[in-house]
């Protein structure tokens, strides 16, 4: 995001905050005792169709949208902070537009959630929206911690938890390790030294351990011991330096395919003739990102034989981690408080719905009881060759902590892997990469120091 937009958004909070609580339906004593009629237009801001599909399949098709209510979707892609920029523009206008033009609900990601949590633009999920402690009791703690503001107020909820692991190609595992069994592959990849040793074996067999520079980034970043910002100073944890060392080593030795995450080249490594051993990711990455990239024919049935679909499996890998997640926020000024409540409850608290989403969509959903049921069930993920991988996520999900999160994480992490891409490819030296990194971060966040 441009510096001018950051300043504009921050300054707007000063004038918006005084009236946000009064304007939010149900947030003043007067509206609490005599709630206004619900609006007939429900505006939702998103960056892709992931939440749309959950909403339509498990809320709209269940007949839960009140009669006469029109749902409008405002979709802006995430690339280059476009979604955040558009969302900021809409939120800044909340007090200047008609009720039917106001945003009622919007999504945020883990990387920038804190930017919206500690502001009056997001409504109290309990006191204003009406979810109870009992409703929320089975959600994984970290999913609530990350959306709790400095005063202890919960500002958003999610239908998913995002513990991650290593998604590997079964046929390549057999070629390199002699087995594709998840338990045996996990033994071979149990820590980073073991993982690096397998990378050497994979190279000898003509395969790449990872697709590119950023593939292991989230594993290292989620395991930092100190935050990226301490006392307004940029802080680089030793774990990020370990990522830089490993990635440079993998690149120089040909253990990766020199691709950037999300690029066409990265996903080509997962195609039928691809040579990439595996990718790190959580449940949403498995079914929403990787699985489609493995299909030769996107219109044909998703089954074994269509590209590399079905030739995959899942294990924890060298280190547990979490990555991403989408949270539902209620926008201050909305006149659809009851509808927001019903959406949040149905899609994040209802155990039966959580089980359905997990079994039908592949999400690891945000309900401990629901996930225990799925883990012990006969559920099979066809992309993973029929494996029920949910059980492997259970312990990781309970142990996830976001205590080191800061509002600066997205900008710093993106600057880190963008700045070091040229170093990994040999175009610049490490000192220059660090200089580029600090220059980029200080341009984004001029209040910080090196």
Layout: helices, strands, pairs:
Layout: H1 3-23, H2 29-33, E1 41-46, H3 50-60, E2 70-75, H4 82-92, E3 105-109, H5 113-117, H6 133-136, H7 141-145, E4 163-169, H8 170-177, H9 182-188, H10 192-204, E5 210-212, H11 217-221, E6 229-230, E7 233-234, H12 238-253, E8 256-259, H13 264-268, E9 278-282, H14 283-293, E10 312-315, E11 321-322, E12 326-330, H15 337-348, H16 351-361, H17 368-375, H18 390-399, H19 409-424, H20 430-444
Parallel strand pairs: 1-2, 1-3, 5-8
Antiparallel strand pairs: 3-12, 4-9, 4-10, 4-11, 6-7
Write down the overall mean pLDDT: 91
Radius of gyration: 23 Å
Low-confidence stretches: 1-34
**Could you tell me the strand content as a percent range?**
5-15%
Strands of the widest sheet, in order across it, are 2-1-3-12
What percentage of residues falls in helices of 4 or more residues? 40-55%
Backbone shape: globular
Number of helices: 20
Number-wise, the strands total: 12
What distance lies between the first and last C-alpha atoms, to the nearest angstrom? Answer: 20 Å
Q: Report the major sheet.
A: 4 strands, mixed
Helix-strand makeup class: alpha/beta
Description:
The chain has helices at residues 3-23, 29-33, 50-60, 82-92, 113-117, 133-136, 141-145, 170-177, 182-188, 192-204, 217-221, 238-253, 264-268, 283-293, 337-348, 351-361, 368-375, 390-399, 409-424, 430-444; strands spanning 41-46, 70-75, 105-109, 163-169, 210-212, 229-230, 233-234, 256-259, 278-282, 312-315, 321-322, 326-330. With 450 residues, it is of the alpha/beta class. Mean pLDDT is 91; it is low at 1-34. The strands form four sheets. It has a four-stranded mixed β-sheet, with helices on one face. Strands 4, 9, 10 and 11 form a four-stranded antiparallel β-sheet that branches. Strands 5-8 form a two-stranded parallel ribbon. 44% of the residues are buried.
């Amino acid at each position: 995001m441009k510096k001018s937009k950051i300043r504009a958004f921050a300054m707007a909070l000063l004038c918006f905050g005084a009236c946000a609580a009064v304007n939010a339906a149900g947030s003043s004593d007067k509206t609490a005792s005599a709630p206004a009629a619900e609006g007939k237009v429900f505006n939702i801001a998103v960056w892709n169709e992931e939440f749309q599909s959950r909403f339509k399949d498990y809320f709209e098709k269940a007949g839960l949208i009140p009669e006469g209510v029109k749902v409008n979707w405002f979709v802006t892609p995430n690339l280059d902070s476009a979604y955040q920029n558009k969302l900021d523009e809409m939120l800044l206008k909340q007090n200047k537009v008609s009720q039917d033009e106001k945003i009622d609900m919007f999504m945020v990601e883990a990387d920038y959630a804190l930017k919206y949590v500690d502001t009056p633009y997001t409504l109290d999920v309990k006191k204003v929206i009406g979810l109870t402690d009992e409703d929320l009791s089975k959600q994984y703690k970290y999913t609530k911690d990350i959306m709790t503001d400095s005063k202890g107020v919960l500002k958003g909820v999610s239908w998913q938890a995002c513990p991650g692991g290593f998604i590997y190609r079964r046929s390549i595992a057999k070629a390199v390790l002699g087995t594709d069994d998840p338990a045996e592959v996990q033994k071979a990849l149990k820590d980073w030294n073991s993982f690096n040793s397998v990378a050497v074996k994979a190279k000898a067999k003509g395969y790449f351990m990872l697709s590119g520079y950023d593939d292991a980034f989230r594993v290292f970043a989620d395991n930092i011991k100190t935050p990226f910002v301490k006392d307004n100073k940029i802080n680089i944890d030793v774990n990020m330096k370990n990522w830089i060392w490993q990635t440079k080593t993998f690149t120089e030795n040909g253990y990766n395919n020199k691709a950037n995450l999300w690029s066409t080249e990265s996903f080509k490594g997962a195609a039928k003739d691809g040579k990439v051993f595996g990718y790190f990711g959580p449940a949403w990455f498995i079914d929403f990102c990787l699985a489609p990239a493995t299909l030769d024919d996107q219109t044909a049935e998703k089954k074994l034989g269509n590209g590399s679909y079905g030739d995959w499996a899942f294990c924890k890998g060298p280190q547990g981690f979490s990555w991403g997640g989408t949270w539902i926020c209620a926008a201050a000024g909305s006149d659809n408080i009851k509808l927001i409540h019903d959406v949040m409850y149905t899609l994040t608290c209802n155990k039966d719905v959580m089980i359905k989403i997990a079994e039908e969509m592949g999400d690891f959903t945000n309900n401990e009881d629901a996930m225990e049921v799925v883990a012990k069930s006969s559920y099979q993920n066809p992309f993973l060759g029929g494996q029920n991988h949910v059980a492997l996520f259970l312990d990781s999900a309970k142990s996830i902590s976001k205590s080191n999160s800061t509002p600066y994480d997205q900008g710093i992490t993106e600057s880190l892997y963008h700045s070091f891409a040229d170093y990994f490819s040999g175009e610049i030296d490490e000192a220059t990469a660090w200089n580029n990194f600090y220059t980029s971060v200080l341009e984004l966040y001029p209040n910080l120091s090196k």
